[in-house]
Amino acid sequence: MKFAKRLSQEIREEWAQDYISYRKLKRCLKRLKIQRGQKELRVQGPTAADALVEEASPLLDGSSEPRREFRALLDEDAAKVAAFYVRQWGLLHQEFLQLYGHPGAPTVFDVIQDAGTQEQREKIKQLYISAMRLRRYSELNAVGFRKIVKKHDKVSGETLSVPFMARLGHERFMHLHELDDLLLQLSTAYSQASNGALIDNDADVVRVLLEAGPRQTQLVLRWRWALLAAVVATVLYCVPILHSQPAAHRCVSMLAFVTIFWVTEAAPFFVTALAVPVLAVLMRVLRDPSTGELLSAADATKLMLSQVTNHTVMLVIGGFAISAAFSKHHYELHAASFIQRRFGHRPRVFLLAVMLLAWFLSAWISNVAAPVLVFSVLQPVLHDLPEGGGYVKALLLGLAFASNIGGMLTPIASPQNAIALGFLSEYDPADAISFLQFCVIAFPFGVVAVLLLWLFLLVALRPNDVVRISEIAFEPQKYTWAHYVVLLATLATIGLWASLQYTQSVFGDMGLVAMFPLLLFLSLGVLSKHDFNEFNWPLVYLIGGGNCLGAAISSSGLLALLGDQLRPLLTPLSGWQAFMVLVIAICIVTMFVSHTVGALILIPVVISVGQEIGHAKVLVLGATLMCSGAMLLPFSSFPNTLMMLAEDEIGRHYLRVRDFVIYGGAMTLVVLVLLASWGYLLLWATFA
Question: What pTM was estimated for this model as a whole?
Answer without folding.
Answer: 0.65
